[in-house]
Amino acid sequence: xxxxxxxxxxxxxxxxxxxxxxxxxYPRAQLMRKLRGRGFSTETVDETVAGxxxxxxxxxxxxARAYAAEKxxxxxPVGPHRIVAALMKKGxxxxxxxxxxxxxxxxxxxxxxxxxxLDAARRKWVRIQRAGGPERAxxxxxxxxxxxxxxxxxxxxxxxxxxxxEGTDDDSDLRPEL
Length: 178
What we know:
The protein is mainly alpha-helical and 178 residues long. It is built from 9 helices and no strands. The protein has helices spanning 9-23, 28-37, 42-54, 60-73, 80-89, 94-107, 113-131, 135-148, 153-169. It starts with 8 loop residues before the first helix and ends in a 9-residue tail after the last helix.
């Protein structure tokens, strides 16, 4: 006997979850929040998400790896602290996040934290120098910028040192010719 899809909450929940997953991947907790927000019972949501996990359609580790790789390679590089905070906000477990970051680092698929920080620091330092002002204030501004991007203190200070040293060695391209 066929169940009536319109009146079967389990089927409706599964269809809505698949619609969401068709648009983009979701971590388990975020998908569950969306489904509960749609009015499905906790029992129905738990059953639906468990079934999707068995099929491999919901996988927090794969989601965390893809998210971290995208943020690490993006045009606006961010540090691991910001990646961890964003994934935790999405409901991914700390152990899963750590494993994803560790695997990405081992595989060498993403630039190192220092490389990402240097990339961001070099671009920002050019803008800071163009704005003028004392170098010390510019260095502090650069450090705040990098901390805001989620880089560790050690990485921030190394990137500030290297980026500002490079910028002062040959910054002729920063000054207009008269």
